Amino acid sequence: MLKTQNTFLKIWFILILIGIISISFQTILTLPIVGSKIQPPEIIFLLTLLFLAFNSKKIPFRKLKFNNLDFALIFYLGIVLITSFFAKNFHPFLDFFGLVYLFLNYLIIRLFLISIGQDFEKIIKTGILWMGIIAAIFGIIGIATTYFFSANSLGYIYQDYPYFGDTIRVSGFTSTPHMLASILNISILVLLISMFEKRSLRSIFVLIILSLAYIFTFAKIVVLLIIGVIFIFLKKQKINPIVKNGLRVLSLSLFVFYMFATHFILINKSHPNLVEIRNKAFNTGEIIGETQNNYIIPTTYTTLKQSAFHLGKKYWITGVGAGNHGSYFNELKAEGLFPKHIPDYDPHSTYFGSFAETGIFGFVAILYLTFVLFKMSNHLLKTKKYYNLKIATSACLLIFFMEAISVDAINFRHLWLVFAILSAIYNLEQNEKLGKT
Question: Rounded to two decimals, what is the model's pTM?
Answer without folding.
Answer: 0.95
